[in-house]
Write a structure and sequence with these properties.
globular; 20 strands; 8 helices; alpha/beta
Length: about 350
């Protein structure tokens, strides 16, 4: 347990109260885009989106970020690329530093689910010093969602509704937060053809646009594309510019893990007190296994005076909007080198072996 504190100053205020924002930065939804099988397309996506951003609701720009779902032992098939010599620590560190995430796609992209998920989890932890927290089911394999839940992942995703094991797939809308937090199985879209005007690209753009109408809260899409083909490169760039130009700074373009970890933070015990024009909010971050990478909070503050300053303890930085009363505390973890490897319960392993293999 670790107490994180935010001190919110409001000159002349006689009362103040804070609530956790229902969505990070008070946005209305999010777009999560994943490059499967270690696709180098993520680097091209980062390059083409260098001038694209959303804000934290306090006039600070945040660049788009993406996820890459990797395997562990040189899996390669057709247009799906994985170069075991490329995704080593320097390359991974570079994309992590840009707010991206690496997601568990199985050590061998199939096989015994618990071994495949756990072995890759531990491989990345030992070789990269990074603890993964989100799964992408390989192909139509069974048992992977369950295996990821044993590692206390926030969630997993697949475009195949038969691969969710004991979990109900979530599509378009998030369920209300549950306490304790429950693993979330996300239904995603998928496609490798990003040709401008093509059926897939136009479908994804329409799904994203429906976030503004309230028909959905998120759009998640995966691809194998390396974006080497000029038609795919131009189409993916078209998608990102469509988001930037039409979504009016109302959505985050980030990893699904970041969103789900915010949902976890919403459930952390919160206490607050007000004295002499200062509202002090304390969040008890309960993360005994050090799973969380994003420990950010967004607070909506109600008061009879505007916010004049924000400080605190336990966060890396803060931002606030005096006009709306939004306050953000940012706390990120990238170094997991002191975290122990995972070992799933042996009885559960035996049960899953019997049921799925």
């Amino acid at each position: 347990m670790a107490i994180k504190k935010i001190n919110i100053s409001m000159a002349g205020a006689t009362n103040a109260f804070a609530t956790i924002a229902p969505f990070k930065y008070n946005k209305v939804g999010n777009v999560a885009l994943t490059f499967d099988d270690g696709s180098s397309g993520i680097n091209k996506a980062l390059t083409m989106s260098e001038n694209l951003y959303y804000t934290d609701g306090c006039n600070n720009q945040i660049k788009y970020s993406f996820a890459i779902a990797i395997n562990g032992d040189g899996y390669s098939s057709g247009t799906q690329i994985y170069n075991p010599n490329y995704w080593q620590k320097p390359a991974v560190d570079a994309i992590l530093a840009k707010g991206c995430d690496i997601e568990n796609h199985g050590q061998f992209h199939g096989g015994n689910a618990i071994d495949d998920v756990t072995n890759l989890h531990n491989l990345i932890l030992s070789n990269i010093g990074y603890k993964m927290g989100f799964l992408v089911v390989p192909s139509a394999e069974l048992g992977y969602m369950h295996a990821a839940s044993l590692l206390d992942y926030t969630g997993g995703t697949s475009q195949n509704g038969d691969t969710f094991d004991e979990f109900a797939g979530t599509h378009k809308l998030y369920p209300p937060p549950s306490n304790p937090y429950r693993f979330l199985a996300i239904v995603r879209d998928f496609g490798d053809n990003w040709t401008v005007g093509g059926e897939h690209l136009e479908f994804i753009k329409s799904e994203i646009s429906s976030i503004l109408t309230g028909q959905r809260k998120f759009e998640m899409c995966g691809t194998h594309s390396t974006l080497d083909n000029i038609a795919d490169y131009n189409g993916f760039s078209n998608l990102l510019n469509h988001i930037y130009n039409t979504m009016q700074d109302k959505v985050l373009v980030c990893t699904m893990r970041e969103i789900l970890e915010y949902r976890k933070m919403q459930l952390m015990p919160l206490s607050q007190s007000f004295s002499n024009g200062v509202l002090t909010v304390e969040i008890d971050v309960q993360d005994p296994n050090q799973n969380l990478r994003w420990m950010d909070v967004s607070l909506n503050v109600q008061s009879d005076s505007n916010i004049s300053a924000v400080s605190g303890e336990g966060f890396d930085k803060y931002s606030f909007n005096a006009g709306t009363g939004l306050v953000n505390g940012f706390s990120r973890r990238l170094d997991f080198t002191n975290v122990s490897p995972e070992v799933p319960p042996i009885f559960d392993m035996i049960k899953r072996l019997r049921n799925f293999h």
